[in-house]
Amino acid sequence: MIVAIYSGWQIADSNFMFAALVGALLVIVMLEWWGWLTTEASVCVFLLAGYVLGNRGFAQIMPLGTLPLPIGELGLALATGLVIARHIATRHLPIRWNAVGLTLLVWALLGAGRLALDVRSYGFYALRDFATVYYCVFYFLLLIIGSDTVARGRLQKCLVVIFGLLPVIAAIVEQFPVFFLTQFTLRGVPVFFYKGDLLATFLCSGFFLLVLWSRRQPALLRLTGQALAALSLGFGLYLLSRAAMLGLIVGLLGCALAGRWLVLRVAGLTVVLGLMLAVADAAFVQADFKQSRIYAAYEHVVSIADFSGSRSYQGDMSLDTGDNNRFRMVWWHSIARETLSGSPLFGLGFGYDLAAGFIRAYDMEMGDDFTARSPHSIVLTVFGRMGILGAGFWLWFMLLLTKRSWQLAQACRANETAADDALSYHAATWVILISACFGVVLEGPMGAVVFWSLLGLAHAAQNESESLSAPSLKDGEL
Questions:
Q1: CA–CA separation, 193 vs 410, rounded Å?
Q2: Exposure letters 82-94 (e unless 16+ CB within 10 A, then b)
Q3: How far is residue 313's CA from residue 138's CA, in Å, rounded to a whole number?
Q4: Single pTM value for the model
Q5: From the CB of residue 116, how many other CB atoms can be counted at a distance below 10 Å?
Q6: What are the residues facing 193 on neighbouring strands?
Q7: If you write DSSP's letter for every residue of 350-369 in order, what string do you get?
């Protein structure tokens, strides 16, 4: 009764945060009571829905008012505590350890050791930068939750709904931006507010999840899933994110190696239809062909190989692509020089301003107006923070992911249908990982929570697939 009265008073005062949290908590409790999803799984689904659909807006929500505890960190602590409490009686967490998990564990422990030294010097900034490392806990959480086949199947349904809604909601927000920025808010923070390159990345990731999910569905759901997948891919390509395009190519290559030609057929049809619309727009709407979107797409693709950014670009939509390339190259060279000269083995630490040297080399006039702390590449971020040792473990992790993806592709070619779900997660995570090599993705919760969660589900599904094909494999065997 007291909670209801207080919620009503908060709503009357135009403060919807408390009521929204109470409503979310009630839904989570009901799902646990019905036995459909455990509480920790519901918390993870809530975070995934928030970061995928709400994106930057959701990430800025502080549920505890003035206490600077973001909603992602609060959810991470809650889900971790619930998982530990649920399995504490058996004294065994259902993790089948492999080289990927062990590498991440060592990498995280190495980062924690580095943090212990840095927090004295940089305080809160060190903790904030360390988020790049501790978000990997979501990998272990979803690996544990997804080890139950039924729970993983229900999580997949939730993800299909989330990524199926993304292109629809994003298109509405794109059409009515002022309303969502000024009216649809919580404590003045817009609930839906997108980071353009990350939106493109999620749309391309969702394409794989939706298409591969649709393969085993009845006719109506199959057509709906493929239509939403095509819409998601078309919208993602429309945003002209080069990093998302590269990630998409890697995902498509993986599906081709796995023999899942439906994915390539839907992608090909979407691209052809998109090109037809773009050509029609250039021919009948745009007065100047070089200002059309199809010419902008051409310049964006060409600029991928323009490492120095020396090429001249004509279209308004691609005018700054060369400068973006120079921006990255100058910053990456700056990070490499600073780290190798300062602390090559262990890095410059969490909290260190990785942008200071870059600003001096690139444009000193940016000064306080430049707020980015990460050099637009997860590899360089890890190298700058944790040195050769940390970057070495990270590159080894990427190599192990490549190996796991190759093994999965081979299993799919052997017509092991149990591997299809793992393939959808693998393809989606590769889109995000490739994007993270050229942008700020895994350094913040918007991309990191989604990436690590999907990767945990990918390996949970792949572990089950391997167990079905090799029944003698023991739990816990590397």
A1: 40
A2: bbeeeeeeeeeee
A3: 41
A4: 0.90
A5: 11
A6: 55
A7: TT--TTHHHHHHH-GGGGGG
**Which amino acid is present at 372?**
A
Residues 127-143 have pLDDT tens digits of: 999 999 999 999 999 99
- How many beta carbons lie within 10 A of that of residue 462, not counting itself? 24
**How far is 193 from 446, CA to CA, in rounded Å?**
11
In the block, tokens 């060592």 appear at: 106
Q: What are phi and psi of 271, to 5 degrees?
A: -65, -40
Least reliable range by pLDDT among 37-46, 164-173, 267-276: 37-46
Domain-wise residue ranges, the chain: 37-469
Query: In the structure encoding, which two tokens stand for residue 406, read together?
Result: 């190759």
The DSSP letter of residue 474 is: P
How far apart CA 453 and CA 77 sit, in angstroms, is: 15
> Phi-psi bin for 416: left (phi > 0), alpha (psi -120 to 50), beta?
beta
d(CA 71, CA 47): 8
Cα 24 from Cα 27, distance rounded (Å):
5
pLDDT of 201-235, one tens digit each? 999 999 999 999 998 899 999 999 999 999 999 99
DSSP assigned state of 475: T
- Residue count of the chain, please give it: 478
